[in-house]
Amino acid sequence: MSSRRTLLTGLAVAALTTFSGVAAMAQDALKIGSYPANPPWEFKNEAGDFEGFEVDIINEIAARLGTTTEIDGLDFRALFVATASGRVDAVISSLTITDERLEAQSFTQPYFSGALGVGTKKDAGISSIEDLKGKRIGSIATSFPENWLKEREDELGYKAYSSYDTTANMLTDLRSGRIDAAVNDIVSLRYAFAQPQMNMLEVAAEIPTGDKFAIMLPKDSAHLQGFNDAISAMKEDGTMATLYEKWLGVAPAADSVTVTPLPIPTSAD
């Protein structure tokens, strides 16, 4: 074989190897962090697999981008460390877009606008946020509800506040009477209280906040635009509305963020 043919063959092999490497990279599974006990948003089923509204969303995004997902369960506070360090490509966990978070993280457009709920024992005598005065309350550490409560400590006048690493521990303390009220995403509370073992608990009050849930990524992630475009497409073709109704039991409002394509947020407004 001539030296020229040898050179051309070598270049062809190198090109093929490079192309194969790029194709393999394109197919790499997205590494997703998630708080594993947050139904109906995300939770592990009896087989140990993740399910939930946001699980379906992230899996659909991955499919539209030509890849798959690998979802790891993390403590809620660890989600922020995981994105900041680049350990994960994205995080799902009913995360609210806030100006403070946008300083260190990036978010896709929102797909849900929520409210907080006040969970109590039935007949606890609490029916509004004003009734939290003098009460022992709790929420999840570093969450939007916790920040909301702490910012209004003087206004609400609650007696004591407990911060929890898990929803399960918070609701255990609520059931046992260690706290008088648990404040969390209202959808999560209603879902939890529908379970037979929680039938002594209820959502006693709703707190409209307008907080918006989205997928969180490392700051200025290369995946951000692709994720956002996929969410817009899901809103436009009805996929997002279908998933919303599947997990939340009702159709989204026609003018809601669930069905309205939006740009990548630069502020919480």
Automatic annotation (TrEMBL):
One function term, GO molecular function aspect: ligand-gated monoatomic ion channel activity
Gene3D superfamilies listed in its UniProt record: Periplasmic binding protein-like II
Cited InterPro entries: Iontro_rcpt_C, SBP_3_CS, Solute-binding_3/MltF_N, TAT_signal
PROSITE patterns: SBP_BACTERIAL_3, TAT
Matching SUPFAM superfamilies: Periplasmic binding protein-like II (SSF53850)
An annotated GO cellular component: membrane
UniProt domain Solute-binding protein family 3/N-terminal: residue ranges: 29-251
Keywords: Signal
Annotated localization: Cell envelope
Signal peptide segment: 1-26
Domain Ionotropic glutamate receptor C-terminal, residue spans: 29-250
Coiled coil: none
Family membership noted in the UniProt record: Belongs to the bacterial solute-binding protein 3 family.
Protein name per the record: Transporter substrate-binding domain-containing protein
Organism expressing this protein natively: Pseudooceanicola spongiae
